[in-house]
Design a protein that fits this description.
Elements lengths: L6 E8 L5 H11 L20 H6 L6 E7 L2 E7 L7 H8 L4 E7 L6 H12 L4 E6 L8 H11 L4 E3 L1 E4 L7 E4 L4 E4 L5 E3 L6 H16 L3 H8 L6 H13 L4 E5 L8 H11 L8 E6 L2 E6 L6 E11 L3 E10 L1 E3 L3 E4 L4 E4 L3 E5 L2 E5 L1 E3 L3 E5 L9 E4 L15 E7 L5 H14 L4 E5 L4 E6 L2 H15 L3 E4 L6 E3 L4 E9 L6 E11 L6 E5 L11 H11 L13 E9 L7 H18 L3 E14 L3 H10 L3 E8 L2 E9 L6 H9 L4 E11 L2 H15 L1
Parallel strand pairs: 1-3, 1-4, 4-5, 5-11, 6-11, 31-32
Antiparallel strand pairs: 2-3, 7-8, 8-9, 9-10, 12-13, 14-15, 14-23, 15-22, 16-21, 17-18, 19-20, 19-22, 24-26, 24-27, 25-26, 28-33, 29-30, 30-32, 33-35, 33-36, 34-35
Helix pairs in contact: 10-11, 12-13
Length: 684
């Protein structure tokens, strides 16, 4: 068996609070990685080690662990469960061959349960379910199991079931071995209670039938009443899991370390090895490229996570998809079209980093101080290809960031840009029009955590406020104006004289300039100065001081003085003429209107459409996608800044949306008056 065949890569996913971090802790204890288990309450778990995770008492980042389990080598990723940190889950799912969904046995399916399950399904990963907290009051295996079957598509087959629930929880029954276990680490065998013998027999038969249905030879043996061995059953189960035709369900209590050892014994047998799919696919210059997943092929690796530390620098966490990377490998990074030399390579165990000489196909590790590398980058050696980018969720909450202390603008900006390198679901952009630094996050919790990280790592504090709207102004009427600029103050004077025609253009056309001068009324050398005067003047309109768009100016006549005329004089004349013309051309305020697409379960459609109406939105249409509805609408930007928070409130976290600028439209007169008044107050 090759090294790659002995590797098992898996991640834990769930809604927040289902127990992933506790399960990780008990797994590390059972594997002999740690001597005693920490707890979230005592802020001493191996997975939640950053100050922010200890403060908030929930996972914020993926935690990576590598350890031996029997004759296999495991890479385990503990992912955050809160919706604001779904980007971490997206990265983890691209590095593994199996995803274990934890469900709280007292709460059942929750908001983020649906989301992360759909992500694992989209990645076409073998999936497993672990129903946790069977020892808690209100735990109900049958209720949760039926809820799973109703909510998700798939053949869900229990491999372990509980002995008792809540206060009466005693342990688990392994349906493959038909043996019951109690106590920590599942070491004590107990009698299967008489009241569960029929259930065990029935579920064992369902398991057997599900497996034999997928294998003709086993089917023949089954119908011939020949005994199917445990080895054959496991082999069939492995094939069923790999193809997605069987989804195993296990139970236990992470807090009591019950059912955890059995869970991992099963996972080690059932999660496919990294080379099970045979090849890794990519592209190079438009052509498809395939590489076999073995240690001897050219090296291909995918960067799924970036961490930035002000002292250590950049740490890039990656999975070796094929071949072998050594600490002196010279890798090519297709996105950057540059090469970089790897120095130290690491295996990760929570906050600890173990230096290694090499990492081979299937392994997960990290490299430090390669500034070129970004999340989703491919690294190759001996071949040229790019792997598909990781599909990260789109951040939704945009705010304007201001330094908490005056004069800290540059420090804050540098810190936020560093954090955005580490977290692809956090975007930073400077808006030249409003002169604001805009930050876009997954939600309020995400933003609060980033404020903590910014202060701790970079000693830069910032506050946020609702961003300014990028209003514009335009004209609605064709006008002609004459403007003469004449100044005499001893010595050479100033003289510029222009006739301007101004007319509105269709939305989105911007600004056009032309000249229709005949007979040298204005010499050619002064025409660019006329245009420049208008270009500068249009940055400040007459309605509320916003930039003017969608209009055309033609200079069609004028006069000049052979001595006193100058570029400056014509520039000033054009600028004044433009301002006067605007006053006469029925100027109005324009607002940005966004194209919004909201994805929600069908039961929220009425609420979403009603909410859009209250935001001056216009519904464009709806279309079903999978089990959800996508509602498309045009909504003014001014009404959208709180939408991420409001959508979460309306749908209980079940909705998501994207938004892009679509066009500019006239602001209703009543709202225009309010904007003008607000602008005047700001200036005062």
């Amino acid at each position: 068996m090759s090294n790659t065949q002995k590797i098992r890569n898996l991640c834990l996913i769930s809604h927040g609070g289902a127990g992933k971090t506790t399960l990780t802790e008990m797994t590390l204890l059972n594997a002999g990685v740690i001597d005693s288990a920490g707890s979230i309450e005592n802020t001493n778990t191996q997975a939640d080690f950053t100050p922010e995770e200890k403060k908030h008492q929930f996972s914020i980042n993926n935690s990576y662990f590598s350890f031996s389990w029997g004759d296999k080598f495991v890479n385990l990723i503990d992912t955050p469960g809160y919706a604001d940190f779904r980007g971490e889950v997206a990265g983890a799912l691209r590095m593994v061959e199996g995803a274990v969904l934890l469900i709280d046995g007292t709460a059942g399916i929750e908001v983020n349960t649906d989301y992360v399950w759909a992500m694992a399904e989209k990645n076409q990963l073998p999936r497993f379910i672990f129903i946790n907290k069977m020892d808690k009051d209100g735990a109900d295996f049958n209720k949760v199991f039926n809820e799973i079957k109703d909510a998700y598509q798939g053949n869900f087959i229990p491999l372990t079931i509980p002995v008792g629930e809540g206060e009466g929880y005693k342990g688990i029954i392994d349906l493959l071995q038909e043996v019951a276990f109690s106590g920590e680490k599942d070491v004590d065998k107990i009698e299967i209670p008489a009241e569960l013998t029929d259930t065990v027999e029935e579920l064992r038969m369902e398991l057997l039938e599900s497996v034999v249905e997928l294998d003709e030879e086993l089917m023949e043996k089954y119908f011939a009443d020949e005994k199917i061995s445990d080895k054959e059953l496991i082999k069939g189960l492995v094939a069923g899991v790999a193809s997605g035709e069987i989804i195993p369900v296990m139970v236990g209590s992470a807090l009591k370390n019950s059912g955890i050892k059995k869970l991992f014994d099963l996972l080690i047998n059932l999660v496919p090895s990294p080379d099970a799919k045979g090849v890794i696919e990519g592209v190079w210059q438009g052509e498809k490229v395939e590489v076999s997943i073995t240690v001897d092929e050219p090296a291909v690796a995918l960067v799924a996570k970036t961490m930035v530390d002000p002292y250590i620098g950049k740490l890039s966490i990656f999975k070796v998809e094929s071949g072998t990377l050594t600490k002196d490998s010279e890798v090519f990074i297709p996105r950057a079209n540059e090469t970089a030399k790897l120095s130290k390579l690491y295996r990760l165990n929570g906050k600890e980093q173990e230096t290694v000489e090499k990492l081979t196909a299937g392994e997960i590790g990290a490299v430090a101080k390669i500034d070129l590398l970004e999340t989703s980058d491919t690294m190759v050696e001996g071949i040229k290809m790019s792997l598909k980018d990781i599909d990260f969720p789109v951040p939704m909450l945009t705010q304007a960031a201001l330094p908490a202390s005056e004069g800290d603008d540059e420090k804050m900006s540098a810190a936020l840009n560093r954090i955005s390198q580490e977290d692809v679901t956090f975007k930073v952009e400077y808006n030249k029009e409003t002169k604001e630094l805009l930050v876009t996050s997954m939600g309020t919790v995400h933003l609060d955590v980033i404020k903590d990280i910014c202060q701790r790592k970079f000693e830069a504090s910032f506050i946020t406020k609702v961003p300014k709207v990028t209003y514009k102004e335009t004209i609605q009427k064709k006008v002609e104006v004459e403007e003469k600029y004449k100044k005499q103050s001893g010595g050479r004077g100033q003289y510029g004289h222009v006739f301007l025609r101004m007319e509105p253009l269709p939305r989105g056309k911007g600004f056009e300039f032309d000249e229709e001068i005949f007979g040298g009324a204005i010499p050619n050398q002064y025409i660019p100065a006329v245009e420049k005067g208008i270009v500068e003047a249009k940055e400040t309109g007459v309605v509320a001081g916003y930039p003017v768009v969608d209009f055309k100016v033609v200079v069609y006549d004028g006069s000049y003085h052979p001595v006193d005329s100058s570029e400056m004089a014509f520039k000033i004349a054009a600028s004044k003429g433009f301002k006067n013309g605007m006053q006469k051309a029925k100027p109005v305020l324009l607002e940005p209107v966004m194209q919004v697409e909201v994805t929600v379960p069908e039961e929220y459609m009425g609420d979403i459409m009603g909410d859009f109406n209250s935001r001056r939105g216009k519904i464009l249409g709806m279309e079903p996608i999978d089990s959800k509805q996508v509602i498309k609408a045009h909504v003014p930007q001014a009404e959208m800044f709180s939408y991420a928070i409001d959508l979460k409130s309306i749908t209980g976290g079940h909705g998501s949306y994207t938004t892009v600028l679509d066009h500019y439209d006239k602001v209703p007169s009543k709202i225009e008056e309010e904007i003008i008044q607000q602008r005047q107050n700001e200036e005062e």
